[in-house]
Design a protein that fits this description.
There is one protein chain. This protein is mostly helical. 69% of the residues lie in helices and 0% in strands. Helix 13 packs antiparallel against helix 14, helix 14 packs parallel to helix 16 (268-281) and helix 15 (252-264) crosses helix 17. The longest helix is centred in the middle third of the chain and has 22 residues, at 114-135. This is 26S proteasome non-ATPase regulatory subunit 1/RPN2 N-terminal domain-containing protein.
Amino acid sequence: MAQVMHIWRNNPKNATPYLESLGDPQRQTSEKQIIIENLDDWKVITATWFEMAQYLSVLETLANDQNFAGRGKAALLCSKVAYCLENYEKALAFALDSDNNFSSTPRQDDFKEHDSLYVNKIIEQALDTYKKKRNQKMEVEPKLAALIDRIFQQNLERRDFNSVIGLAFDTRRIDMVETAIKSNEVPEKTPVMIETLNKVWESQLDIEFRTLVLDLIFHMLDADLEIDKKGSQNLALKVLSICQCLIKLERPAQVAQIFNNLLSKKNTLVAYQLAFDLYENAPQEFLEQLKELLFKKEDSQKMRKQSFPQKTTI
């Protein structure tokens, strides 16, 4: 059987006899496995998928048979036939049910890039389904979650941290944002966190998830903030980035604390930079709250009539 099918696969025509054999209870399981393995070839699929579509119910029966040794490969073949029929939801379902026979990396012997197109479409469908469930706070099927984790892991192994962060934003995975930043091997992670912060400003994240990301970046930046190091090259950049997070998080008390720390450590220049940045970027209400926190009670009457300059629009 194997030799006959190998010869046929080089010039695949009329797959019906083999497809009928899959539904024959008299056929041995080993023969059915050989048939499925030989049908799972894009050179064969592109020539005979319309025949396979007519026997899709037979393939599905094998794919759902827990006692059939080739169940996973049958499910993968069902997925590819469903893909040819442009039923991408069903194609994803069978790919997930293929016992890890679905690979998120296209085959090396990719026939006319058909496997690349198929894999990309399944991943696209998986991400869309995953994002929809996450955004609606629905339960995510474990097999779907496992596939998404595999995609994250592949990008991490390739050191493609930008893709990891972008995907984490799309899928609302705060854990993967943190993993991407920490996995970056650069000795000084401040630029990485600031780049991530810039992505937050550029992305249309929902308020809840944006708050989680900003809070994460704030704590990671704040964890190694050493204000007493006046000569630190990244101190000003780090302080300004931290305060950008705190502005969006509406936490004037923590900005006031940073101000006081800068002044107590005689880091006047950075304090001035922060003051100018706040004037340019913080809402007036935030500035007023900050003023109340910065000035002592005994100075409150003296400073009551003073305030940050009101912003004007041109």
